[in-house]
Each structure stands twice: as structure tokens, then as C-alpha cells.
Records
---
Amino acid sequence: MTSVMAMLEAGIWTWSAEQGLRRDPSCLQLLGLSGDELDDLGWLARVHPDDGARLEEAIRACQRGESGGLRLEYRILHHQGHYVRLEERVRRDVDGTLLGVVRHLDASAAQQDDRHDTDPLTGLESRSHFELLLDERLASESGSFCLLQFTVDHRSKILQLFGEVACDAMLAKLARIVRHELRREDPFARWDEDGFILMLSQTDRLSGLEIAERLRLEIADASLLPERPVTVSIGLVQSQNAEQIDHLLARLASCHGQARREHNSVVG
């Protein structure tokens, strides 16, 4: 699961005439690099010779205002010496700023997507796969656990102000922040367009509330969008003995719904 997530996470970059190109470290991680800077090869220098001119011209057209955006697939040299396939989507805002999102298109990632085990944007579990895992967990009778469901507040307003590409990039970064705070064995899924769900094994309600509050604060403090904080509303429940999945999810939906009405809160 961890390797699949690494392949599917999005890299993000921005460009403006005033500040130039700013590439998030997540872009470099796609190429097997660490830190904040490329090595002696620049990004375009790594692109396959048959793809480089097409990519460069498309980006320049966006910079000149001749195109409002692009979606391209190309090959780029990985740090270990082999080429990987990337998808790059770029959007040009009204002020001329470019926002780019790049993702892996490796064959192994495509196979995972074909099985519907993962969400292609975030690399998290898909909703259907999470429900299967939850059903198996309830049937195993291996102790209680907590479920957390959370939704980005005011996503429709964010979408209106920043556009689809920026919204997608925000969700991908949010998923990485949360995944980093969880244990590897804790299932974590994209639940719907603006929501997520996760399972905390061997965790009681009070401990779950502490974790939920920590996640809420960390997300609110993160720079997920320029000059606009992103907050989430979190619902939490602890599983009950011999509880059926429909009953558990209904209780969770009730807590989550109350949290959404309050905004930027935890209810459980």
C-alpha cells in the first residue's frame, strides 16, 4: 500500500512572472530525489528527448496567455536512471499565475487503479475497498476501533475561487499530511469529492478524539492554498461489539453531519 501511495501522490508547482518557478518538494519525490532542490539536471533536461520540445512549448503557450491550461503525458528520467511516465496538468489563472500538478502514470499504478483499490488523485484507498476492509474488520472480532470521517469546509467556494486544478492539488497535499500522522496499518480512504475516512485500530473514543483534534489543527495550520486557510469538519465514533457496518456508518454520518454544520470542529 505504501509503495502505491508513493507512486500516485501529486507533485505541485507554481509559476508567476514576478516570482518565477516554485516547485514543491513533492515533485522531486516523484523522481526519487529528496530535499528542496534538483541535482545537476534540471526538470526539462530530464524529460525524454522525444517529449521535451512538446512539453516546453505547451508551458510557454500558457505563460504567454495563448492557452488557459494543458494536460500532457511525458517521460522523465528518474534518479535511479530509468524513465517514468508522468501526467502534467497546468491551469493559468486570470492574473497569469500557472499552477501545475504532476502524477505518475506507471503501469503498476494503472493496474492498481483498474482494480479500483485506490483513488487516483490521492493514492489512498478507494471507498469501495475501504468498505471491504471495514466489513472484514467487523467480522474479525479483534477489538474495538475508531472511525473518523472528515470533509473539507466550503469546498464549493474554494473550487469557485481557485479552480479545479488547485482544488485537486490541495486535496492531494491534505491526504499526504494526514497519512504522515497515521500508522502504516491504519486504513485511510477518499470517501467522496471533498471527504475522507480512516480507521484507528485498538483506539478508544477519547484517544480517537485527541487524534482527530490534532489532525484538525495541523490541517488548519498547513499552507494548502495561497492566503486562505483550509479547515475540516470531523466526525468520530468507536465501534461497538457485534455492530453491523450499516449501523456503524449511520452513527458516523450523524456525528460527521453535526461537525459539518458547525465547521472546523470535531464531534464524537
Note: The chain has ten helices and ten strands.
---
Amino acid sequence: MKKQKITLDLAMSDLADSVARLTENGELRTSAIPGLSLFRRSEPSEPLTGMYEPSVCLIAQGAKRVQLGEDTYLYDASHYLFAGVHLPVVAQVIDASHEKPYLGLKLTFDYRDICQLMADSQLPPPQTKQTDRGMATGKLTVSLVNAFQRLVNLLDEEQDIPILAPVIQREIFYRLLVGDQGARFRQLAAMGTKSQQVARAISWLKENYSQPLRVDELAEIASMGTSTFHHHFRSMTALSPLQYQKQLRLQEARKLMLTDFIDAATAAFQVGYESPSQFNREYSRQFGAPPVRDITNLRQQAVNVGG
């Protein structure tokens, strides 16, 4: 066990060196490899609201806290974070300094690739039984870290990315499928499971968040009874469908005001609110300040939620 720990430490140290070098000119790098982003932060952050997409997140150096509903997930250079569906979270970098900056990676995935891998492979049984949540932390292994290292190395040889990146990503997904969160990963990917049915409804809701919400229609999309759907939805997201929709609306309104420079009333209408006063009240509760003040504050600081 001690030898494994030292080997993992060395692997993470090498990965940290690579991420540090590639992010020395900024806090965020969306790389030439589809789905791979690199992150750097030289001081702890305030709690930041954002949306995690289906992805696996590693921290090569530092630590982060992610809040999903009432659940808290801590991960660092010994653990990865797995987000199986789009989930509204509050994320905070809790360990970072100029001498030892927070260095993170995020790799998004498409379940079609996971399904194809499962169909092509005779996977061994998962290590642990499944859980209901769409988010989990898992223990890093040397094999998984080494695969991420090879993927990051391709950023220095971009001509090789189209051929080699899909091969390495396939290995990463394989390592996840047979790892300690493999059961969760498989349940979300496998057609016909309750997890996959709820994930289908979440995808629809994410695309239609501005429409009036009818839980029975969402349940129909998921091919479930209403009460069964409501139970599985909350189990996966830690939120009710209505709470989830509210998070989507508020985050989209925030993005519209920040990037498109539109006023609060227009943003509220575009995301589905009929009452500006209700929007202002819920926005203040969610982000800790009224829209105008919050957007002003955001423009005075770099905002980065992810990986």
C-alpha cells in the first residue's frame, strides 16, 4: 500500500507540473483536445454557483469543495469527482496559493461513447454497488492518472490529437467503468435503467427550462409514473424537478446579463419568469445579491467554475 501511495504521489506531481506549465498564462485553458479543460487558481475562491456537465474532474494540486443540494463533496490530488448528469452546484477552491496553485482538469464525455465501449468490451464486475446520486467522488489510481498524463502530453504534439486522443479517452472511460464508481457510470450509460431514464428527462429539462414545468410530462419522457419519477429525480440530483428548473433559470439569466449585457427584467422574461419581483427575490437568495449588484461584482473579478 505504501509503494502504491508513493507511486500515485509521483504520478500526480508529474501531472501537476504539466498543468502548471500549460496554464501559466491564465486561469482557464480550453484545450485543443475536445472535452478537455485545464484550470489554475492562485488563491482560494468564494463559493461560486455553476453547472457541472457530465464529466470527470481531477485535481493535480490543491483541493475543492462542491455542494449539491445538501450533499458536500471534497476532492483533491487523491480523489476524482464524477458528475453523471448536468447538475447545479456551488463550488469552491479551498486549497490554493501563489507558491502551490490549484491545478485542475476536466474531461467531459458523451454517453454514446460509453455505451459503445460497454458493447465492445467484456467488462469485469464493478468494484462497488451503485448509488443513486448523479455525483460522486472516487479514489484515483496510478493507471487513471497515467492515462490523463498521456492525454495532456498530446497538447505538445497537436498533430497527433485526432488519432491518439480518442484512444486515450477510451482508456480513461474504461478505467472509470472498472473503478470504484463504475457501477454508477454503467447505470447512467445503460439504456432502460432508471438512472438513464431520469438522465433523459434532465436533458429535456435543460433544453426547455423556460417552459412551464409539468412533472407528469417529465415523468412521461422518463417512461415512469409521476411519484416514481419524482423520487428518482431527487435521488439523482438532490433537488426536486421544480428546484432544478429554478437553478437552471437563474444561472441562465445570470449568464445573459453578464455576457449579453441585458437588463434584469429582460433576462427574467427570457428564462421563463413572469414576475420580475419574484425573479429578483429568488436571484438574491441564490447568489447573495440583487441582479445589478451581483453582475457588477462579477465583472470586477474572474469567475471560473469547473474542473
Note: The radius of gyration is 20 Å.
